[in-house]
User: What shape does this take?
Amino acid sequence: MDQAIVDLRSDTVTKPTPAMRRAMAEAEVGDDVYREDPTVNRLQERAAETFGREAGLYVASGTMGNQAAIKVHTRPGQEVICEQRAHIFNFEMAMTAAFSGCLARPVWAEDGILTWERIAPEVRGRSDHRARTGLIALENTSNLAGGSVYPMAIADEICERAHAAGLPVHLDGARIFNASVQLGLSVAELTKKFDSVMFCLSKGLGAPVGSMLVGSKEFIEEARLVRKMLGGGMRQAGILAAAGLIALEEGPRHLPVDHENARFLANGLAEIPGITINPAKVVTNIVFLDVTKTGLTSFEISKRLLAQGILANGVTAETMRMVTHRDVDRTGCERALRVLHEILKAARGVAAA
Ligand code: TLP
Assistant: This one.
C-alpha cells in the first residue's frame, strides 16, 4: 500500500495480497465456458459448501450476480420489491428494467431493514390492472443505510412469508460476511432461507475481482446461461478464481479489525465540530457522516481531503461515506480524522474572518 494514501472510498479498493498473487501465477486453468477450469470449479464448490447450497457460480462482479439472479427469478412486466436505498435500485444501471424488463418497487425502511409488515402491502398478485410481484430482494449488510445488519429472525420471516405467497427472495449479500461477523452466525445459517445469494469476493474479503452466486443446482444452471448473455463467460478465469479462493477461506478473519476501525472512525468523527454522526449505528465497516453543519458540501470536503492524501467520497452534498478494509490500518484512520479536523477548522476560520 502507498503509505501516503488513506483510501476510505470503498472496500472494493483492496489490492491482492502476495499470497493471492502467487496463487494467481500458479493457478491451474482451463476453459470455464466448457466447465474445464479446475480452479473456478474448486471456488464454486467451496462457495456452495460454505453456504450449504447445491451449487455456486463465479461471476465478474456483484452487479452481474444480482442481475443474473433477478433475470432468472422474474419475467418481464413484473415488479421487484426492494428497500429504497438498495444497490440493485440505485447503482446497477437500471438493469432490473433494461435487462429483466421489471420495475423496481422501492420501499423505505428504517436503517434499510425491511420487515414483512412493510413488504406485505406492496405485494401484488394477479390483477387486470397492476404488475405482479415477481421477486423480493434484500441487501445485507445494507450499503447506503450505513452497513446495517438484518436481524436473522426478520430476514427469515420475510423469506417464509414470501414463500407462502409463492414469491422467491434473493439476497444481495455483497457484504454478508460482515453481517456474519457482526452477528456471530455463519453465512450458511444467516442465508439458509433465501432462494439465491450473491456475495462479493472483491470487497472486504480482499480478492481483486469477482463475486459468487449460490443456490440450487437448477437455479445455478439457469444463472450460468444468463451469465453468458451478459458476456460473463470468462474462459481461463482460474487466474482470478485462485485469488478468490484465498479471499473466501482467509478474508473473513480480517473483518473484525475493519469493524473496530470503523467504530474508531465513527467515535472520532463524533468529536469533530460540524460533523453529525450516531456512532451507535456503525456496526460493520461502513461509516456515513452528515456534513451539513460544516458549511461545506461533502464534495468540497472530499476535494480538500484528497489534496492531503485522504480519499473519501461524498454520496449526497450533505453526506459522506468512509469504508474500512484490510488496506487501511488504525494509523490511517487516525490520520484521516486529524486531516478532516484541520480542514474543517480552517474552513470555520475563513467563515469567521
Ligand atoms: N458497491 C460499490 C458501489 O457500487 C457503490 C461500493 O463501493 O460500495 N451490492 C452491494 C450492496 C454493493 O455495495 C455493491 C458495490 C454491489 C452489489 C455491486 O458490486 P460490483 O461493484 O462488484 O458490481
About this structure: The domain at 18-251 is CATH 3.40.640.10 (Aspartate Aminotransferase; domain 2). The radius of gyration is 21 Å. The longest strand covers residues 133-139. The mean pLDDT is 97.
